[in-house]
Structure prediction request, 877 residues.
Amino acid sequence: MSLWSRISNVFRTERLHRDIDEELQSHIAEALREGRDPEEARRAFGSVLSHRESSRDVRLLPWLDSLCADAVFGWRQLLKRKVTSAAAILSLALAIGSCSAAFRLMDALLWRPLPVAAPERLYAISRELAGREGKDSTSDRCAYPMFRQMRRAVKDQADLIAVSTSGRIDITYGSDEETEKAYQQYVSGWIFQSFGIRAAVGRLLTENDDLTPRAHPYAVLSFEYWTRRFGADPAVVGRTFRAGNEFYQIVGVAEGPFTGTEPGIVTDIFVPTMMMKNNAIVRSDYEWFRTFVHLKPGVPLALVQEKLRPPFRAFLEERAAASAGVPEQEKNAYLNQALVLNSAAAGVSGLQQGYGKALLVLGVLVLLVLLISCANVANLMTAQAMARHREMALRVAIGAGRGRLVQLVVMECLWLALFAAVFGACFASWAAPVVAGMISTPDNPVRLILPADWRVVGFGAALALTCTLLFGLYPAFRASAVKPAFALRGGSAQLRPRMMQMLIASQVAFCVLVLFGAGLFLVTSERLTHQQTGFSQERLLTVETVTSQPQPYMVWNQVAAQLRTVPGVEAVALCEWPLMTGGVWDGLISVNKAPPSPVASYFLRVDPGWRKLMHIPLLAGRDFREDDFLSGAAVVNQAFARQYFGGRDPVGNSFDVVAVEGLRVPYRIVGLIGNTRYRDMREAMQPAAYFPFSGNYGRASFILRTSSQNPMTMATALRLAVQRARAGFRVSNLRTQTALVEQHLVRERLLSLLALFFGLVALVLAGVGLYGVLDYSVIQRRRELGIRIAIGAHSVDIAQCVIQDVFRAVAGGALLGLALGIISARFVEALLFEVKPTDLGALAPPAIIISAVALFAALPAIIRAVRIDPMAMLRSD
Prediction:
């Protein structure tokens, strides 16, 4: 009989039994037709049941048949205990769903290979620089002249590809009134050929499009953007759009799911690197793109790395020789950079660097919650298996082997895991996009690709199987070890105290570890949130504005005057960019013609009304005046005075801003103001110097103090006012100053919120587990407790008898959890702020909380124990 027939017979047993019975009856009927006596024929034929079983085993697969039978029995057991099964499924579903959601996020951001040819041969160049105070720094940005030298060195072994970060820019396919946002990325013209990407329509960029600066204003759209924005219209090829003052012609659409090299950002438009502005292609001091190395087949990584080092070293030496104004210490550190090639199979993005460790921490938290849930279900299944010890004894007595008993219990556990995995998948499909949305901001939307493909399904299946093994094997082996004679005589099976205590201690340890981490992240979030910014952000609106041609300060000031007439606007100031946007202009400072200090200062150009509008206190001297714009005046903060003047009053003194080439620009300090945060909430208040808003600018920001508590309600009126004030002026972005500050707290708030959620889940699961173990313990020891009560034990003695072993395990688990927390804290140290794992405030709350929960979980068991009626219990025995 064929294998397929034997498999199919497993699922049509009734028909198989009929066929076997008919065949057996036909043999007896044939003997009767030959004239044999019916009784003699039946005796000669033998046992019908034995023939049926042997024939049945030949016509199907016995192991598959027993597996199906145990699956049916396990399903009936779940239906028999609906409430208990539902509770186990829900707790497991939450844990499995959280693990699946964390996996989907980590896979999308950190692990999923780019949809390019041979992603395993893709690497990214980074530079490791030894920093001050022993703190090393890493940069993955390069200058284009260095890129050219390195590309020539390895052209036969690898393709070097220049790729900028994907920037959200203003573009228009029509008039200025039709401006929209799109993500644009500058790429080497040969990127599509190297990555094996073909054109869906039109053509893609080529190397000839990326040879001459600003000669080929061509653009390629991603397939996703083409479908979303143009409805996959082939006529898009040949259309033009404007980005700033540049016009680009669309030459084609990239085929497939490729949307750039930055996970978390879906690039819409690709343009040649040669279209980069501000002489970025020839400047050796402008590091603005990442360099990818795509190895050719059969070429070892070590060979390419060795060939890249000589041009890299030559470029550093050339740059160091031209850096006359840089301190010798800084120059030596620059020359000692190390070139490193890291795998870029999953792409490279700022989101990976900013959220990679946070997602790994999230993964650890949900894994701990899963382990707590598995320990709970293991306790439940063990207790149920012990309650069925007589049933198991009967199965052994009639010939069931230990393997069959293990299979019986494991199949029931597998049903629990499968249902939990299904519900968990539904939870993960909702939770993963929600968490991704939590790290997204209106100005920097995050778009992670979260498909439910074979990777996600395979992880879910593996997780369900792992959970089955985690919480199913121990109950199965305990149940299969039943002694038939003892059980059938009326003996009762009990949990082993040592195993019970180990399960309790492990649950408590995992719970305390989750609570410990949650406490660290909550404190970090709270302290960062309450960091002083040095300025008032209430009712502030930032209006980032661009012009068709650079304009002098007088013209910008005329637009500011027009904005002051808008109803609801109390004051208007002008600056290059708002504080806390992430924009940076810094440089070295020299006082009294001395060598420049190794500590750089931040710079910003502002108008005379900026300080007053920002509510920054004036500590000495004066503010800017209109006649300061050509006099080289500067206003500095306290950190500047402390760093470069030893804390003395700097008003009236002078300093030079030293450029890399040694050029010095002198400034005279006219005022001292309070410290403000420039770009980050984590760094200490840094030195900052403010200069008059002078020169011609094609982009700047108006800062408005409004009378409305919700400044964004004025967005439309302000856009129209800017356009009416001066031809060629257009609003690029409107954001509240509060939103700019809060965008620096997104990661910390996300971690604290999720850690708190999983801490509460872990606490509930641990409490339920403790309650279940204690309740089972009271039931198993009711005779002993009854005897103690009968001979005069007090309620306190009974309570102590019930909880002493369990609370010893709780105490041990709490200490173990705190120890693990202190050890593991060093791995998340970069995510913490002004909190130490060894602080009493970090150690005490988890221990106190778990003790309180353990006591609360023990109360029902204690009450049940002290209410045992010894006479009724002894009569029942």
Notes: The radius of gyration is 37 Å. The mean pLDDT is 84. The first helix runs from residue 3 to 10. The chain has four domains: 3-60, 119-345, 352-529+746-876, 540-740.
